[in-house]
Amino acid sequence: MNTKNKRKDIVEKTMQGVFFTLGMVTIIAVVTISAYLVLNGLPAIREIGFFEFLFGQVWRSTGTDPSFGILPFILTSFYGMIGAIIIGVPIGLMTAIFLAKIANPRIAAVVNTAVELLAGIPSVVYGFVGMIVLVPFIQQIALHFFGIPSGANLLSAILVLSVMILPSIISVSRTALVAVPRDYEEASFALGATKMETIFKVSVPSARSGITAGVVLGVGRAIGEAMAVMMVAGNVSNMPELFRPVTFLTTAITRELSYASGLQRQALFSIGLVLFCFIMLINIILNFALKRGHKG
Questions:
Q1: Residue 2: predicted pLDDT
Q2: Phi-psi sector, 49: left (phi>0), alpha (psi -120 to 50), beta
Q3: Of 130, 83, 129, 87, whose CA–CA distance to 240 is shortest?
C-alpha cells in the first residue's frame, strides 16, 4: 500500500507540476505579447499624436503628406461587432434551444453535425463564399434601392461575421441548456407552466452564464477576424456606412503590413495595440456581465 501511495503521490505531484508549467507558459505568452505591442506601438502614437491617431478620420499612409487617423477603423470594427451580435446571437440562441429542448434526437444529431462543420470551415472559405455569392446579391440590392453600385461593404461583412460566430454560440449555449437540472423544469411543469414558458422562464435563465460565455467566444471571433472580412468589406478607409466599402482594424493591418516601412509600419503596430486594448475592454465588459448574471 505504501508503494502504491508513493506512486500516486509522485503522479499527482508530476501532473501538478505540468499544469503549473503550462499555466505559467500561458501567462508569460500573454505578458510577452502585451509588452511587444506596447513597445512597438507607442512610438508611432507619440510621433503622430494620441488624439490625431485615435480620432483622425483620414488614413493616407502612403501619400506625400501621410495621415494616420484610425477612427474609421475603430468605428467600423465596433459597428461590425454590434451588427454580428444583433443578427448572430438570437439565431444562435434559438438554434441552441431547439437542439437542447425541442428537436427530435435524430434531427438534433444532424444539426449538431452541421454546426461542427461550420466551426471547422477555414475563414478564407467563408470569405470566398461571401465574395462569390453574398457580395453580388448585396450589390443588386444596394444598386436597386440606394443607387450604390458596390456589394463589398459593411453589410456584407456583418452578415459573414454573423454566420462565423454561430458555431461558438450554439455549441456552448446548447451545452449550458442541457446541463440545467431536470428538477427545475419538472417543478415548473408541476406549477402549470407550458413547455415554452418553462424553456424561456426557467431553462434559459438557469443557463445564462453558459450562454453569455458562448456570446463572449463569438464576439472574440468577430473582433479578431481578418481574412473573411477583407474579402467582402471593400477595404476602403471610409467612415462606416451600411452600404459603403470599409476597413476593419484587422484588415487595416493585413493589407499593408507586407510592404510597410518606417512610420507606416510603426503605425500598423499601433493599430495592433489599439485592437488588443479594444478586445481586452470588450472581454472585461462581457465577463463583468457574465459574473453579474451568475450572481443574479
A1: 63
A2: left
A3: 83
Q: What span, in angstroms and rounded, lies between the C-alpha atoms of 174 and 191?
A: 25
Q: What's the pLDDT at 289?
A: 67
Please tell me the predicted confidence (pLDDT) of residue 293: 55
Q: CA–CA separation, 257 vs 147, rounded Å?
A: 34
Give CA–CA dist 105/83, Å, rounded: 32
Nearest Cα neighbor of 121 from 156, 81, 164 is 164
Rg (CA), the chain: 23
- Ramachandran assignment for 260, one of left (phi > 0), alpha (psi -120 to 50 degrees), beta (any other): beta
| Weakly modelled stretches of the chain, pLDDT under 70 | 1-2, 4, 289-296
Q: What global pTM score does this model have?
A: 0.86
- CA neighbor of 135 nearest in space, from 160, 102, 171, 164: 160
* Three cell numbers, residue 82: 454590434
Cβ contact 198:188 at 8 Å: yes
Closest listed residue to residue 127, CA positions, set 83, 164, 174, 93: 164
User: CA of 60: how far to CAs of 68, 150, 175, in Å?
Assistant: 6, 22, 47
45, 47, 52, 58: CA torsion to nearest 10:
-100
Instruction: Determine the pLDDT at residue 79.
Output: 92
Which overall architecture, per CATH, does domain 71-295 show? Answer: Orthogonal Bundle (1.10)
* pLDDT for residue 73: 92
Q: What CA–CA distance (Å, rounded) separates 223 from 151? A: 21
pLDDT at 162: 92
- The amino acid that residue 7 corresponds to is R
Cα separation, 142 vs 124, whole angstroms = 24
